[in-house]
Amino acid sequence: MTAIHQHRYVAVGNEPFLTSYSGQYQSYVVPAMTNLLQSLAKANLARNVKLVVPCNADAYESSLPSQGTFRPELTPIITQMVSLLNSNGSPFVVNIYPFLSLYGNSDFPQDYAFFEGTTHAVTDGPNVYYNAFDGNLDTLIAALAKIGYGQMPIVIGEVGWPTDGALGANLTAARVFNQGLVNHVLSNKGTPLRPQVPPMDVYLFSLLDEGAKSVLPGNFERHWGIFSFDGQSKYPLNLRNGLLKNAKDVEYLPYRWCIANPLKDLAEVTNHVRLACSYADCTTLNYGGSCNEIGAKGNISYAFNSYYQLQKQNPRSCDFDGLGMVTFLNPSIGKCRFLVGVSDYASSSGFRLQNSWISVLLILLWDAWLFLM
């Protein structure tokens, strides 16, 4: 079985300067960096494995890219951090999410979030910005220049588009954004402040959905995956040498679903739905989700089935005090898919799936996440 052993970066936390953290992690960043740098040196790894501090785009600010600066309270510590990174040949890692700009601001021009052209271009002196990604990246470049590191290499640690859980989060938008991003970066156009110099690495976020992730920022947080839970690509995406490859030989549970029993009074179903959704992911039922308009009984059935599949179709998991029943007719409605789970594997079939996933991972690592190597 093939294995991947190469590591490029060691991250000190993740987005430690988020405004929502109210500064509680700032004082730990540089001491942690110093300790880890010493550890990498002792292990003779400092040359090949670089220390990084992934930052969120709210660490810097401006009305125009050329005026970019780090937040005043962060400037001293980020200057110290960048000095350490630079002395060890490490890049500045930033996470850029145009989707979040669109999600958080009703006045944000939708076409500016993508790479297909915009009627809301931003003019900044001699430079014109046609997409939020370039504008955000040049804001960071300007901020780095103001603290003396204008030529520092930059890695995009996370960038992507969710496929569900909010208005604007859907398969079409995700495909258009990610394909536009790939094409844009591989064109080597760079940005107005760094023409012909794209980021040294770009990591698409993410491989799979995360059904138990916190939804405090929004229900879309569980739906960033390029692949579904079963290793099937959600949409066509050409990375460099062809489209994404699906996992092969996936063995599903039997094609049956758990739904609300149409012959039962569902007046007392609320606690059962709440219990099911406390274990399974029901975020697609909320406003903006792909299953938001399937009606009250549809919502109950979706919650029941999500729990039922999570429990590997254990017959007792579809009881719900007699309010659930198993059906062999697919209850999916339009874009709302009622899923069937993946089975537990015998050793032979499990080995086939693992090999398939290794192929997928290799493709993503070398053709998608690191498509700028």
From TrEMBL:
<feature type="domain" description="X8">
    <location>
        <begin position="256"/>
        <end position="338"/>
    </location>
</feature>
<dbReference type="Pfam" id="PF00332">
    <property type="entry name" value="Glyco_hydro_17"/>
</dbReference>
<dbReference type="InterPro" id="IPR000490">
    <property type="entry name" value="Glyco_hydro_17"/>
</dbReference>
<dbReference type="Pfam" id="PF07983">
    <property type="entry name" value="X8"/>
</dbReference>
<protein>
    <recommendedName>
        <fullName>X8 domain-containing protein</fullName>
    </recommendedName>
</protein>
<keyword id="KW-0378">Hydrolase</keyword>
<keyword id="KW-0326">Glycosidase</keyword>
<keyword id="KW-1015">Disulfide bond</keyword>
<dbReference type="InterPro" id="IPR044965">
    <property type="entry name" value="Glyco_hydro_17_plant"/>
</dbReference>
<comment type="similarity">
    <text>Belongs to the glycosyl hydrolase 17 family.</text>
</comment>
<keyword id="KW-0732">Signal</keyword>
<keyword id="KW-0611">Plant defense</keyword>
<dbReference type="InterPro" id="IPR012946">
    <property type="entry name" value="X8"/>
</dbReference>
<dbReference type="InterPro" id="IPR017853">
    <property type="entry name" value="GH"/>
</dbReference>
